[in-house]
Amino acid sequence: MTDAALPFSFEIVPVTPFQQNCSILRAPSGRAAVIDPGGEPDRILTAAEVMDARIEQIWLTHGHLDHAGGAEAVKRATGASIIGPHREDAFWLDQIEQHWAQFGFRDMGEDCTPDRFLDDGDRLELEGIAFDVLHAPGHTPGHVVIVNKEAKLAFVGDVLFAGSIGRTDFPRGDHQTLINSITQKLWPLGEDMRFVPGHGPMSTFGRERQTNPFVADAVTGYGRADKDAPTFSMSTSIRPKRWM
Ligand SMILES: [Zn+2]
Ligand SMILES: [Zn+2]
């Protein structure tokens, strides 16, 4: 996507059988970062070439196979360093190959050892363009969200989707922790914040606060002065698709 208002351009490349949204962020000079190269490294490298982008950094939101499985291959091809997620996700990064095998795939991805883990409040930089790092556990314990406030654009991995939220039925996943991450870390960034989720179409925090059956304000009570008022439970009757 090329948007005159953005300090960088970006393309979304869906990869792996899970159609995971890998994003390539390109600064005006061509220096680039790739977020969540989950697999199909050749497709990612070709997309970068078409953009005339030189991948120098690999940023990971979390350690799941479809987000991190292609990171080592992209690193070998480009020399980029792998940064993130939070170290609490190391156990996921160590079982990517085994996890793919459980889904019946071989050679789909590799275990990953980041050059650096991230903490809440860290700052990433691409040619002077700053990105804030927020620790947002729940889907996985070491999940991070990467935010560019200038462009009002967030890369949220599997924390939040258009119309859904991340699964929490994996080891060390926790539903209430995920809801807290969304309401306490994401919503304060503003309703006009657009986001690229790990799967599916983009949306805005404002739209999800209106319509998301899991985390709409009517469900969570977020932003209401009277915290004791009853909240609706839409999620018991509606079961939108939830991704890996
Ligand atoms: Zn995913
Ligand atoms: Zn995931």
TrEMBL record:
SMART domains: Lactamase_B. GO terms for molecular function: hydrolase activity; metal ion binding. It comes from the Bacteria. Pfam families: Lactamase_B (PF00753). Gene3D superfamilies: Ribonuclease Z/Hydroxyacylglutathione hydrolase-like. Its cofactor is Zn(2+). InterPro entries: MBL_Glyoxalase_II (IPR051453), Metallo-B-lactamas (IPR001279), RibonucZ/Hydroxyglut_hydro (IPR036866). The keyword Hydrolase applies. Keywords: Hydrolase, Metal-binding, Zinc. Signal peptide: none annotated. Residues 19-199 form the Metallo-beta-lactamase domain. The keyword Cell division does not apply. This is Glyoxylase, beta-lactamase superfamily II. It comes from Amphiplicatus metriothermophilus.
